[in-house]
Design goal:
Elements (H helix, E strand, L loop, with lengths): L16 H10 L8 H14 L3 E5 L2 H11 L7 E5 L4 H8 L4 E5 L13 H4 L4 E7 L8 H10 L3 E5 L7 E2 L2 E2 L6 E5 L12 E5 L2 H11 L5 H5 L19 H11 L2 H24 L12 E2 L6 E3 L3 H13 L15 H6 L1 E2 L6 H5 L2 E3 L8 H15 L1
Parallel strand pairs: 2-3, 2-4, 3-12, 4-5, 5-8
Antiparallel strand pairs: 1-9, 6-7, 6-10, 8-9, 11-13
Helix pairs in contact: 1-9, 2-9, 3-4, 10-14
């Protein structure tokens, strides 16, 4: 058994989180939309050039808000990839609409933009893209399709904070962007997320939806003398203590990003000879994309080899994991959605993919052990 025990993930912690959490407690304001919530929102608006950023209780609820703001209802359809987390599809299903899955590109594991148009029917209302591993989908093509067919575009950018497409922050390109600040993400508040808005017309409806269907946000801005129930909604506000934890990490966002990129680049350089020898495949980053080192994955030849690979790493103290089971093959996927076209790559590629340890503060010695262990499998 190896002396190394390297976990797959350790939640990010920069050092000042507890200081800011204590400040939130001392201010006697720990519910939603306090000082730190506003600071985090303003930071994202300025950094990512977003019209409005609203912190939410999770990336899941950000997706649900986006689906509701699209006005989805029973009988509508939304096109999305099957290679994603259940939250992406759940947001659609909860409105009564139908998820329509299409195949992914094998190079990026993102939705194949060339297959979207054929999946459009007279019931299609939106396209929901997923920026897998913080690498952008082909957004120019997708936006053109959406414009020509009068469709909304929702970006599931749960993995895309601090990643860009042609210089534009992921989450700010479509009609709605959804971030996650779960403990597995580059920046975390334990559980949390954000909804990114780019159209002024969406801001007030989003605020009402997020504040239990009331115009409470306008009241706090002094725009109305009292607030009341004006539409349907729910409580999508995270605690200000969670926001305080996140604030500490946003202040160190560049340092966190550089640390993760150092690990990503070290892996990539070390494994290139294995790819050139045809032993495995590495992530592909299109020229127009700036990724955020959210994850580092490799692809083995098939499911059997991947199983042996994960076992080999585990025996040597390295935790590695595969990723999504394609949604269209799941019980809920078969019940609520349908797959349009042929599943050429989604299942095949998902069975080959395995993720290596990647987190802020991964020690160089641990990183080198991961590299040696991966190489030893092929030796």
């Amino acid at each position: 058994m190896s002396n190394f025990q390297i976990p797959f993930n350790i939640p990010p912690f920069t050092g000042s989180e507890l200081t800011y959490v204590q400040q939130a407690v001392d201010a006697h304001k720990i519910c939603g939309d306090g000082h730190f919530t506003k600071m985090c929102s303003e930071w994202m608006q300025e950094r990512f050039k977003a019209k409005r950023a609203l912190l939410t209780t999770s990336g899941t609820t950000a997706l649900e808000m986006a689906a509701l703001l699209c006005g989805l209802e029973k009988g509508d359809e939304v096109i999305l990839p099957s290679f994603t987390f259940s939250s992406t599809a759940n947001a659609i299903v909860l409105t009564g609409a139908t998820p329509v899955f299409v195949d992914v590109r094998p190079d990026t594991m993102n939705i194949d933009e060339k297959l979207i148009e054929d999946a459009i029917t007279d019931r299609t209302r939106a396209i929901m893209v997923v920026h897998y591993a913080g690498v952008a989908c082909e957004m120019d093509t997708i936006l053109d399709i959406a414009r020509r067919h009068s469709l909304k575009v929702i970006e599931d950018a749960a993995q895309g904070v601090m990643a860009f497409y042609k210089g534009r922050a992921l989450g700010t390109i479509g009609d709605y962007g959804c971030y996650s600040f779960h403990e597995t993400k580059n920046y975390s508040m334990g559980e949390g997320g954000a909804l990114i808005l780019q159209d002024d017309a969406d801001i007030e409806p989003a605020e009402i939806l997020r504040e239990k269907g009331t115009n409470r946000a306008k009241f706090f801005r002094g725009q109305v003398d009292k607030y009341t129930w004006v539409n349907y909604g729910s409580s999508y506000l995270p605690s200000d203590m969670n926001a305080a934890y996140l604030w500490a990490q946003l202040l160190e966002a560049d340092a966190v990003n550089e640390d993760r990129l150092a690990t990503w680049n070290a892996y990539h350089e070390a494994f290139l000879p294995l790819q050139e020898a045809g032993r495995l495949e590495l992530p592909f980053i299109p020229d127009e994309c700036t990724h955020n080192a959210h994850m580092y994955y490799v692809k083995l030849h098939d499911l059997e080899e991947r199983t042996r690979f994960i076992k080999h790493l585990k025996e040597r103290g390295v935790s590695s994991v595969f990723h999504y089971i394609p949604l269209h093959s799941s019980p809920a996927g078969r019940r609520f959605g349908r797959f349009h076209g042929e599943d050429v790559y989604t299942t095949r590629e998902s069975e080959r993919l395995v993720r290596l340890p990647m987190y802020y503060g991964l020690r160089r010695t641990d990183r080198e052990h991961v590299i040696r262990t991966v190489r030893s499998f092929f030796d």
